[in-house]
Every structure is written in C-alpha cells, then in structure tokens.
Design a protein that fits this description.
- The complex is a heterodimer of chains A (225) and B (778).
- Chain A has 225 residues and is α/β, with parallel strands linked by helices.
- Chain A contains six helices and ten strands; from the N terminus they run βββαββαβαααβαβββ.
- Chain A has one domain: Rossmann fold (3-Layer(aba) Sandwich), CATH 3.40.50.
- The radius of gyration of chain A is 17 Å and the shape is globular.
- Chain A starts with a strand and ends with a strand.
- Chain B has 778 residues and is α+β, with helices and mostly antiparallel strands.
- Chain B folds into four domains: 186 residues, no CATH class; 177 residues, no CATH class; 197 residues, no CATH class; 166 residues, no CATH class.
- Chain B contains 22 helices and 20 strands.
- In chain B, strands 11, 12, 13, 14, 15, 16, 17, 18, 19 and 20 form a ten-stranded mixed sheet that branches.
- The longest helix of chain B is centred in the C-terminal third of the chain and has 44 residues.
- The two termini of chain B are 37 Å apart.
- The chains are: A alpha/beta (225), B alpha+beta (778).
- Chain A: Pfam families: ABC_tran.
- Chain A: It comes from Nonomuraea pusilla.
Chain lengths: 225, 778
C-alpha cells in the first residue's frame, strides 16, 4: 500500500487577475522508504503539491491519501492531529523557534501530540540529535548554531514523533554545498530505514541520493522516474 | 518530586511562553502596569465606596437621628413624655434649633445654626459626641461642631439671634456631629448650647421642636405616624407648623458621595477597558510577530486549541501578575481615599475593612477582562491555517495613502506606513482617542460645572440676601442710599411643602423647600426658563418652580395645579413655568403680591451693591434683627460641595490620558520591532538614521494628530452624557455642553508630544542597529 496516493488532484486559486490553476489533474503514488524529489521551475506547482500531501492546503478536486488517511476529507482539527503523528516537515529556513533550545525544539512535537511519555521526551530528543551529530548543541538556542546544524536540528524535530512521512521544502536551498550534501545523506539514510521522504528541490545535487523524481511543469506532472 | 501540573507546565511550549515574555520584558511590564493601573482604579473606588458607604451609615445612624421633627409653638419634657406613649412612637425629646449669625470679621457675619439641648446627659435622639470642653457647656458658652473649628474664631464670639441683638459668648469646646453636612462645606457654623445660654443670647428659653423616633422605617410610614401625631397634638391645643421627615437613615451628603463614587467607578471601568484594549493591542502585535512561529507549531502538530491556550495563558499570567500588584495597591488607595471622604464628610472611620467581594471583583477584572478582550486577536491568530501563517499576510495591495502625491518622500512613507496595518492603526487610534476623549470630557465637564455655577450666580443679580425679623421700609431706604448700592428689593420667603410633610434636615437647609415672592418689577433675578413662562404682573396663583423643586415634586410640570402647604394651610397654585436655578434648595416663585396674600408681609431683602461692607455697617448700626448671606458666600458653599468631584474628574482625566499615551507607545513599539528588517533594508539602500527617525516620527505624530481630532469629536457625546448625569444628581438640571479650549490645547500638546516620545525611543533604537544586526532580527 503506497504511503502517498494522490489521485487526479486539481488546485485552483482565485486571484484578482482571475482563477489560477496551480495543479491540474496530478496523480502520484509513493511507497514506504522512497526518497522522492519534486522538481520543476518556480511556479510549476511544487509547493502546492507538497501542501496537498501535508494537508496544509486542500485540493479543488481529486483525492489525497497519505499514511492511510483520506487527507482531503479531514477537518482542520483532525488534520492537525493526523499531521502531528504522520508527517514531519522541514522548512528551507529551518524555522526553529528562537526562544527554545535545540532539544526543546525537538521535544515540542512530542509535547503537542503527546506521543511519548514526558519522561521519555528529552532522552528521545537527545538521541535524535546524537544521531545527526549535534547532541553537544542540545541546550543552545538556535541562533548559536550554524545553518547546517540548524537544518539537522529541524530534521530531528521533524522525526520527533517518528512519522512515516518526512516532507522537506527546499531543505538545502539555504546551505552551502558540503552541508547540503550532508543533509541529503541524512535524508537518504532516513529513507533507507523505511520513512518516506519527499523533497522539493531546484538543484540536481540530490540525484545520487533519491530513489524517484517527479517533475512538474505548467501545473502537471511532466515526468515521473 | 514534581507534581503532574508542574511537570505539565515545564513542557517546551510553556518554556517558550516564559521566555517570550521575558524576552519582551518591556512590553510585558507595560501590560502588567496597564492592567494593574486599571485594577488599582477599580479597587480604589470599590474599596473606598464600600468603606465610606458602610461608615457614613454607621456614623449617621450612630447619632440616633430623629425620624421626624415637628415644629411647634412650644415643646417640653412633659409633652415629650406624653408623645412617647402615642402609637407608633418609640421615643421623643424636646429641642430647639435657631439660625443665628456670628461675626467672623469686622464687617463679616456667617450663618450659625444653634442646637438647643435641655439635657446634655440625657440625649437619646439626634445625639452628638463630646470631643473637648466642659459637658454640658456652662451658661454663656457653646460647643461647636469640630468641622467648624476653622470657621469660628477662638475665644469670645459675637452671636446675633433672629430678632435679637448681638451678644458675646465663648466657645468652650467641640463635639462631633456626623449627622450634619460638614460645616466647612456649607459655610455655616454649628453651635450646641443649653437653654440658659440661649437666654444669655437674648432668646426665649422655650423649646419648640419635638424630635421623634418611630416604629415605621420608611419615609411614608414615618410621615403617616407624624401626621397622626400632629393631629393629636393639635387636639391638645398645640400648633404644628411643620413636619420634617428627611430621607430615613440617609446622611444629607450621601447622594453627593454616591454620585462621586458612581462617577469615579465609571471612569475606573473605562480605565480598565482601556488597559484591556492596550493588552489586546500588544498581544495582537506580538501575535503578528509570531505568525510564522504559529505556522511552524501547527506544521509540527499543534492544534488550534493548543495555540490559543498558549497565548490565553500568557494573558492569564499577565492578569494574575497585575492583580498581585493592583489588588494591594488598590486596597491601600481605597483606604486612603476613604480617609479623604471621611474627612470631607466629617466622619469617623470605625473600620477600614474591605469586603471580600471587592477583592474578588478586582481579581475578576484583572484576569477576565483582558482575557475577554485579547480573545479576539488570539482566536484570529490561532485559527490561521499553516499556509496563511507561513506566507506573509496583512499588507494590503493598496492603501488610501498610496494615492497621496505631491508630498516629500519621507512624509509620504510616514503616511503610508501609518495606513499599512489598518487594524493596528484603528486600535492605536481607538486607544489614544478614547483616552483623549475621556481626558477632554473630564475637563469639559469641569468647565461645564464652573460655567453652570457662574451662570447660576450671574442669574442672581444681587450681592446680599438679608432676612429681616419684620418689614422695615426705613431701613430699606437707608440701604438704598448707601454708597455702592444700586438696587434693593423686598422679597417674600417662607418654608413650604408639597404636602403636609417636608424633607428638611435638622440644619434647615438640606432638603428644604421654600416659597419666594418676587416683586413684579424685579430686576435682580434672571433665571433661564426651561419650560412655560416667568411670572407676570397680576398673577395671583401662578407659580414657577426651580430645578431642585423636582425633588419634592418629581412629576410637576407647567400647566399642572399644585397644592403647597404654608404654615399648616393648604394653598392652591397653577404652575406656569420652570426655571433653571443653581445653588438654591427647592423653591417655588410667586409674585410678591400673591406671596403677601398667602404668607404675610415680605421681609427678605435682595441687595445689589459693589460694597457689601458698607451695607453690613448700615445693618450693624441699625442693629437690624436679621441674618444675611452674601452671594459670594453661596458661591463658596456650592464650590465646597463639588470641588472634590471636579478634582477627582480632573485626576481621572489625566489617568485616562496616560493610559492612552501608553497604548500608543505599546503599539508604536510593536510596529517598530516588526519593521526592523525594513529599516535595515532602507539603510542598506542609502537611507540615513535621520531619515528613519523622520519616517517614524512623522508616522506617530500623524497618528497623534488624527487621534486628537477623533478625541475632540468623541468627547462631545461623552461630555454631554456625564454632564447630564452629574447635573441631574447635583442640580436636577443637566450641565450645558461645554468645550474647554484649554483641554483641547492640552490634549493636542499631549497627543503630539506623547506620540513623538512614543516613536522616538524605538525609532532611535532601530536607527542605531547595524544593517547586519537588523537583517538578522527574528
């Protein structure tokens, strides 16, 4: 059973200039453990597709099934609960909360979703940070970390609730090339452990790590390899 | 070992909350101060009101005030003994009260109300407490009420009884009589003497009042018992001139105190509302700053309720911190204010205990009001979708100011910035405008009050009132030819009642109602008509009622027929008009001719003069049997009654202004923090720190000027409403809508200067940041 099953999704926005279709009858299936890259030019619909998969936005038509849930049918409350347990999100600009330490940032999803007993949350956060090589930064505020370290912390946070799906929107866009490669290696390792990773990217540096690619052009899937 | 609650509150989201509050400590402190100020205001007013209301009643009832006083030809202990056995009467004692005058300067006399007590050791009704001096006061001496100490010269004092000559007696001590309006407020002295001293003063030692206490406790019940007693007294051959039943259990100034407290409470509530709006504004600003963080928290699993709960707890904590400061300060302020009120009303405070409900109200006000007001921006922020939260929002495509042209670039940017966030602009403007409107309204009402008193005094075109024991045409002629005198008129004056019972208090002034006979060609009175017409020559049963007559005659209007009691006789009149009169008890004006037909010869003089001392000398030389009251004295008395109220209004007006400016500071500060990056970008492309400062100052001063305009407009209905309420409570007539130019000027200054100051600090800070620092700002 695929982790992601997008069926004939169309998304149209109303704009002052008239209706704008960001996705047109897009379909996509991704299995567990895949590392999928979503590529395409700016405005091709990459972020919109990611928003459909994470339930951040709703399709105008079509169906979105992710991790066994019909995401397009869930209300906001149910979506929040579902997303917290099933999807880890990594942003381009890391988006760590500036007044929480790195460990606290990682503990936050567990706190919101109540997924692990209180006593287990910090050890788990530290274990994730250890895995990504930044355990010694655990009690520092994000501002004290480099960009690469912040992105690793953000990935740790995304995995805090052990979701079956990790979604990253241009996670290497703000990193230098060597740090970006380290992050890609991390994603590959995570996928290898069975977590589906979906990554929006502009560059071709990810090619050696990914297992499949979806290319979007003019709101449709132009290639899926 | 941690408790589950403390464990729960140690979670990362609560740590975020604590650190966010600590990081923005300036705003956190300001919000706490603003709510604490509102809570202090509420607490102070409620505490003071609770203490003062309890103590005024306790003091007043502690004197065992007479339920009714019957004015007779004569009264004595034997009659009182008989009356005690009558149905419905629980006690009775004979007394006498005279309105005399005392000399307080070479040619200056003041009213002295003398209470004649036959037995100082057996007072059961209308009692007073000894404070100093011999008890009872020896013959030829008098005790004075303690609040009259500053008014009565020490040592021998010259006293003149109505119809008598002046004699000298000595002030031998003081008493405390909290049943009376304070002497200093009413510009009258209160003396307590024995019948022997009354004889020394040349008065008759005969007592003429019967003070009674009744089983009935309502005014109607007391009046009925008194009527029945009066009927019985008449059957026993006594003449009953008047039955006085003041409002039962109510101090003469209780209404004034309650009006003051009501006014203060309204302002305190508005102050709290302003503080709450300020909190909502700051929280709203903070939420705008944290929108991305909210989006991220939602993206990693936070539910709407969790986000809302997080920020609601922040407001709750602010409220609790404000309560921790505001409740004790409010209680202390309330106790201090109760002390002031007690001093003003001549009360002893037996207890300063504040009831529990006052503390509870403060706590609710501190926690609930900000929470309710902040619920709007919290709900809005918490319900944003992740997409809305993570993308920029809130900046409109086009603003009104975008269409402005022909202005300097800096000024244009300032104006456009002001309109960037319309909701924020509306909130800032609202805060500053409401604060300003209340400031203006406070001063407008104070000005309206002063204008009312001035107009009221100007309507009396005389400078002295002299009450003669008997008509004296020769004396009138002598006064007329005294240098400085421009006109003398003889008026009629007699106590009256709408029924057979009057509401007069023992001092003879509060609650009184009189019939006044005005000469048809009078040029000394020009009261503004509020309905109908003024008296015309030839009117024989026409009556014009003044504002305060609405107290005994609440439903009377022009066209009605009215029965007035004159010395026990019912007389019928036709109401032809009503007039606005300030500083006078209830009065019914009739022509002098009509007055003399019903109440005997007119013997009150109204004198217009530029030299009251010269007239005083004529009166003294003539050894005139009468008392006099200068209009200036009356003005002082009216001022004495109200200066506390006006002072409190002005103090509250200033408080409102401070909260308004604080609000502007808060919202400006938030706006500056939000735009730090923008300033950095501006500097990166060539703007100087001076340009940035100019833009921010231009923006805040523009908001200040807008708020001035809005406050000036909003102040009109607020001034009108407060003036209507206060005027009715004080004069039974609304205060005229008055705009104080001084207040407008002051607020313009405060709004512009406050705005400039509010913008200057954050703008300087923003301008000082290096471009690198500013761009890194989260």
């Amino acid at each position: 059973m695929p982790v992601i099953d997008v069926r004939e999704v169309t998304k149209t926005y109303d704009t002052p200039q008239g209706p704008f279709t960001a996705l047109r009858r897009v379909s996509l299936k991704t299995n567990a453990g895949e590392f999928l890259a979503v590529v395409g030019r700016s405005g091709s619909g990459k972020s919109t597709l990611i928003n459909m998969i994470t339930g951040i936005d709703r399709p105008t038509s079509g169906e979105v099934h992710v991790a066994g849930a019909a995401v397009h049918e869930l209300d906001q409350q149910a979506l929040a609960v579902w997303r917290g347990r099933n999807v880890g999100v990594v942003f381009q600009f890391f988006q760590l909360l500036p007044t929480l330490t790195v460990a606290e940032n990682v503990m936050l999803p567990m706190d919101f979703c109540d997924t692990y007993p209180r006593a287990e949350r910090r050890p788990r956060a530290l274990a994730l940070l250890e895995r990504f090589g930044i355990a010694q930064q655990a009690d520092k505020l994000p501002a004290a970390l480099s960009g690469g370290q912040q992105q690793r912390a953000a990935i740790a946070r995304a995995l805090a609730n052990d979701p079956p799906l990790l979604v990253a929107d241009e996670p290497t866009g703000n990193l230098d090339s060597s740090t970006a490669i380290a992050v890609l290696e991390l994603f590959a390792a995570i996928a290898a452990e069975g977590t589906t990773v979906v990554m929006v990217t502009h560059g071709s540096d990810a090619a050696p790590y990914i297992t499949s690619t979806v290319e979007l052009a003019d709101a449709t899937v132009s290639a899926h390899v | 070992m941690s408790s589950p609650l403390s464990e729960r509150l140690s979670g990362p989201r609560w740590r975020k909350l604590r650190r966010d509050m600590a990081l923005a400590w300036g705003r956190t402190v300001m919000m706490i101060v603003a709510i604490a100020a509102g809570v202090t205001g509420i607490g102070a007013v409620l505490s003071a009101n609770a203490i003062a209301s309890r103590e005024i009643t306790r003091n007043y009832l502690g004197t065992a005030p007479a339920a009714a006083t019957l004015e007779l030809d004569r009264a004595d202990a034997a009659l009182a003994e008989q009356v005690r056995g009558r149905p419905g009467i629980t006690d009775a004692q004979a007394r006498a009260t005279l309105t005399a005058t005392m000399r307080i300067g070479p040619d200056e006399w003041r009213t002295l109300v003398l209470f004649v007590v036959p037995d100082f050791d057996d007072m059961r009704i209308s009692t007073f407490a000894r404070e100093s001096g011999a008890w009872p006061p020896p013959s030829g001496t008098m005790l004075i009420e303690r609040a009259a100490r500053d008014m009565v010269p020490p040592g021998p004092v010259e006293v003149r009884l109505p119809g008598g000559q002046s004699r000298t007696i000595t002030v031998s001590g003081t008493v405390h009589d909290p049943s009376l309006a304070p002497a200093w407020q009413d510009r009258a002295g209160y003396g307590y003497i024995t019948p022997q001293t009354l004889a020394v003063l040349g008065g008759s030692a005969t007592l003429d009042e019967l003070k009674i206490r009744t089983e009935a406790t309502t005014r109607e019940g007391i009046a009925q018992t008194s009527r029945e007693l009066a009927a019985w007294l008449r059957t026993q051959g006594n003449q009953v001139h008047e039955i006085q039943v003041p409002p039962p259990g109510q101090h003469p100034h209780e209404g004034q105190m309650q009006a003051l407290m009501l006014m203060l409470l309204i302002f305190a509530l508005l102050g709290l509302m302003l503080a709450a709006i300020l909190v909502a504004a700051v929280i709203g600003g903070m939420l705008v700053q944290q929108i991305r963080q909210i989006g991220v928290m939602k993206a990693i699993g936070a539910r709407t309720g969790q986000i809302a709960g997080l920020y609601a707890v922040q407001v709750l904590l602010l409220g609790l911190a404000a309560a921790a400061v505001g409740v004790p300060v409010g209680t202390l302020a309330g106790r201090a204010f109760a002390d002031v009120v007690a001093d003003l009303l001549n009360l002893n405070l037996h207890s300063q205990a504040v009831p529990l409900w006052v503390y509870a109200s403060q706590l609710v006000a501190a926690v609930l009001v900000p929470l309710l007001v902040a619920a709007v921006p919290i709900r809005r922020a918490a319900r944003l979708t992740i997409r809305e939260a993570i993308s920029d929002y809130g900046v409109r495509q086009e603003t009104v100011s975008a269409r402005l042209t022909g202005l300097s670039r800096t000024l244009l940017m300032a104006l456009r910035n002001a309109f960037r966030r319309r909701a924020r602009l509306a909130l800032t403007l609202g805060l500053l405008s409401v604060g300003g409107a209340l400031f203006l309204a406070g001063l407008n009402v104070a000005a309206a009050w002063q204008r009312t008193v001035d107009d009221g005094m100007a309507a009396r075109r005389y400078d002295m009132e002299v009450r003669l024991a008997a008509a004296d045409p020769a004396l009138v002629e002598r006064i007329r030819t005294t240098p400085g005198v421009t006109r003398v008129e003889t008026w009629g004056g007699a106590p009256t009642a709408a029924g057979d019972v009057v509401s007069t208090y023992p001092d003879g002034g509060h609650g009184s109602f009189s019939l006044r006979g005005v000469p048809e060609d009078s040029r000394l009175l020009d009261l503004p008509l509020t309905s109908g017409r003024w008296l015309a020559p030839g009117d024989t049963n026409a009556v014009v009622l003044n504002s305060m007559a609405a107290n005994p005659l609440p439903d009377a209007k022009a066209g009605d027929t009215l029965t007035l009691n004159l010395d026990g006789r019912a007389t019928t009149w036709h109401i032809v008009g009503t007039v606005r009169e300030i500083g006078s008890p209830a009065a019914a004006y009739v022509t002098k001719t009509a007055f003399e037909q019903h109440a005997g010869p007119a013997r009150d003089l109204r004198i217009a003069t530029s030299d009251t001392a010269a007239v005083q000398r004529v009166l003294r030389d003539a050894r005139v049997e009468g008392s006099n009251l200068a209009t200036a004295e009356l003005r002082e008395a009216v001022g004495g009654h109200t200066f506390v109220l006006i002072g409190a209004l002005i103090a509250l007006a200033v408080l409102m202004a401070i909260i308004g400016v604080l609000g502007l500071t808060a919202t400006t500060g938030t706006s500056m923090v939000e735009r730090t990056r923008e300033f950095a970008v501006m500097q990166a492309i060539g703007a100087t720190p001076r340009t940035v400062l100019g833009i921010v100052l231009g923006e805040t001063v523009f908001v200040g000027l807008l708020s001035w305009l809005a406050a000036a407009l909003l102040a009109l209905p607020v001034s009108w409403m407060i003036g209507d309420l206060l005027g009715d409570l004080a004069f039974r007539a609304p205060l005229p809508l008055t705009i104080s130019p001084l207040a407008l000027g002051l607020w313009a200054l405060a709004a512009v200067a406050g705005s400039a100051l509010a913008g200057a600090a954050p703008a300087r800070r923003a301008a000082r940041l290096t471009i690198r620092q500013a761009l890194a700002y989260v």
